[in-house]
Predict the 3D structure of the following.
Amino acid sequence: MRRVYLDYAATTPVRREVFEAMVPYLTEKFGNPSSVHWFGREIRKDVDEARERVAEALNASPQEIYFTSGGTESDNMAILGTAAALRNKGRHVITSAVEHHAALDACLSLEKQGYRVTVLPVDKYGMVDPADLEAAIAEDTILVSIMHANNEVGTIQPIKELAAIARKHGVLFHTDAVQTIGAIPVDVRELGVDLLSLSGHKIYGPKGIGALYVRKGVRLSNIAFGGAQERKLRPGTENVAGIMGLATAVELAVAEQQETYEKLVVLRDKLIDGLTAVPDVKLNGHPQQRLPGNVNVSVERVEGESLILSLDMAGIAVSSGSACTSGSLEPSHVLMAMGLDHQSAHGSLRLTLGKGTSAEDIDHVLSVFPGVVQRLRDMSPLRKSGEE
Amino acid sequence: MYSEKVMDHFQNPRNVGEIADADGVGEVGNLRCGDIMRISIKVKDNVIEDIKFRTFGCGAAIATSSMITELVKGKTLEEAEEISNRHVAEALGGLPPVKMHCSNLAADALKAAIADYKKRTQQHGG
Ligand SMILES: Cc1ncc(COP(=O)(O)O)c(C=O)c1O
Ligand code: FES
């Protein structure tokens, strides 16, 4: 059976170049970068060099890059770290309703510590309105955290414009760029952001490694305690192999970004056209301001988990924002924030494309999809008005 | 995450559809995740002669609907009423803990269909 992986937004395989960059640090180059002896000193040099490479790819300086354990930790450090550092300046934080839980829940956790949190709404495409941000900024606002592009529906936010508004008011701006590195241009100076999160495993790097960009002059408090690693901001012996892998992954992702974009957009649009040709299948997310590898549709009168299982049986791996797949039994907060009704969120399907995706894969999905939908609709008690 | 039995019932659900001249119909919604199930029954001499279901829901919801139709076909109404969501889950070789609530849907839809049948016959009989 043909196996088709269309869940690259969930995670990606480690690419060969990355793997090879990591191997020496899992074997002979095992030293601890904090050691004084030559065994450690040598590794310290390599870690510093990796930092330079990540910085260069993002148009940052090496001192502005901190290695973390991934996107989740980067988001938490950025949000909780600035909130703590600026607690005497103000206690108001602004975020959006479609953030990844790593950012949204970090912001909301501040409420328990007496901060005010404003969650900006989004339009039906999942887009934040810059005017809403402008209106939400108050005297005591210290941080705005809005993601570069959404992991579920692929909508790209107008970060440059949003960051400029924050800057005008002297408010720090953080963006979660976990889904955008290698997909669209990410240049920290061009975007004008103060903090930016990224993760290794979404860009053909290893899991459990990420980075946080912190613009020079921005003060953060450490949220974990320990040694002096990462200038005390992220204590703990470095994940050296992960760092070496991340540097290669970021470097290659950025170098190949345009090529990746052009290849994926064609496949993405073919997939969107094919899926939405099935009656009552609608695209979620922005039609243009959209990640090149993201497709998200709602299949009316069908539940998402049963769709995933059916496609899985045909060898196709995808995901859904259905309540039945969430563990919490709540439908996706992203789709709900976009104003979808419960049933449409329930029947949502996310297919995300990546390096391994071919035109044949898309053809395979499009040949299987209509039959799967028909079978489940025949089983569904929900009927289109006018149907039997 | 699902047992082979669940996947079998999901892939090849038994008794899908609707009985045109049903004697009782039960439709219930799952309050937790918003799924819907409808069961229709045909009763003769106090025995469930035929039963069909339609489900909008997850794999577990579809499999439990399918399984419950198999379990009660040919049973008396009293026997059918005895069937709980636990029985259905057990017959399927177990369900993941987060999916136990889905089996309530099937048991509740069956109970609702039987209640509907009783209401109808009482009205006719009375
Ligand atoms: C937008 C976004 N932010 C953060 C994360 C979390 O990243 P990580 O898995 O590296 O912790 C993810 C991945 O699930 C994501 O898509
Ligand atoms: S019916 Fe929704 S989780 Fe099973």
User: Anything to note?
Assistant: Residues 21 and 42 of chain B are 8 Å apart (CA to CA).
